[in-house]
Design brief:
Elements (H helix, E strand, L loop, with lengths): L1 H9 L1 H32 L5 H8 L6 H33 L3 H50 L2 H9 L9 E4 L4 E4 L2 H8 L9 H8 L7 H31 L14 H10 L3 H41 L6 H22 L7 H15 L1 H9 L5 H20 L13 H18 L5 H13 L1
Antiparallel strand pairs: 1-2
Helix pairs in contact: 1-2, 1-9, 2-9, 3-4, 4-5, 4-11, 4-12, 4-13, 4-15, 5-9, 5-11, 5-12, 6-9, 8-11, 10-11, 11-12, 13-15, 13-16, 15-16
Length: 448
Amino acid sequence: MGLPGVAYLSGVASAAWTAIGLAIGTYVNWLIVARRIRVYSKAYEAFTVPDFFAKRFGDKKGILTGIAALMIIIFFIPYTASGFAACGKLFSSLFGVNYMAAMVISAAVIVGYCALGGFLAASTTDLIQSIVMTIALVVVVVFGINVAGGLDVVIDNARQLPGYLDFFHSYSVETQSAGKYSFLSIASTMAWGLGYFGMPHILLRFMAIEDENKLKISRRVATIWVVISLTIGVFIGIVGYSMSKAGAIEVLTGSNSETIIVRVAHLLSTYGAIPAIIGGLILAGMLAATMSTADSQLLAAASAVSQNLVKDCFHIKITEKMSIVVARITVVVIAVIGVFMASNPDSSVFDIVSFAWAGFGATFGPVVLVSLFWKGANRYGVLAGMVSGGVMIFLWKYVIAKLGGVFAIYELLPAFIVAVAVIVVVSLITGGPEQEVLEKFEQVKAQN
């Protein structure tokens, strides 16, 4: 919902560079991280991301595990809230029901099948949901172009707005003029791709890969799907503007631009029974996109609490049955907090997602990369880097970025750089890794 909304309001630049960064990030993550973290996590007998960090760097006290688990909880709450907000906007704008009620019901459904079905339920539904999403995106574009008057009309309307179709300029709704999209803005926007290295729910799926021989085809499928879906997502925003100009849908402002797909689906449903069914498929696609992400986030957070905090950090011995209970309670608690965070119907899904994405990218991304590729990192450097990355996300977004100018960039880029620098410097100052940790790393590396 977020990407088409950005393209609808400001044109190609911001949305396209974000999509390019995500596409590159997807490919590189599958290329250099997927197989390695699967092999390394198996060798270290680690089943969660914090558990892998602790065993890789010899953290026997559980401090690194605890901090990593806390970071997962801190940044998954707003991430989950964005999914609930998307569901609330979908049903509220479509049926005219109360936003809060729609969001709470959606959250209850997601929490229900996550708590009862666990990882297998999330993986199975993800496959089905991805198919539904693909069909939905294609239908929206084709129908939207037809209603707007054809592809030529869509392009001509977009060209009439200064900078709307320019990769190096951005259209401003307020001034109705083009503003320069600088190299620094492009770099920080493409930094979205760095976030993939630190996404716990993605890393968890890499760690759970059953057959590493299928990684190559999986990488190709994932990359192609991301490229197609993001390209269509950007184009939906452009088509949506022409639909508004043609009077087919109302002119959308602010965060309402994120409901563009909902408006298209509603319009399609007025053309008869079969189009109404197709419109329902589109909405199912949107719901699928939200649910497939939210369930993965909730499960990763649940494992962080039940396994990493309770067992590994606080060393509390509990039965397997009690561990499941703790995980389910965690899912419910995070969902409740997420509902409160998303209670404002004017909140932007894109903004909420970008903050959580930056948080994971800066806290876990550098740690994942050094854990797989640099033998010189130690637990002190990793711990310092993780904390500094997380702190810098808040500091840059809420303090430094407000200075404007060159500082008004996406917080993930500077925070990621700071985290990498801190890991390297602190690891070198504190004497590098212990001999036991170094020998284990070299042993696993030789098997890779």
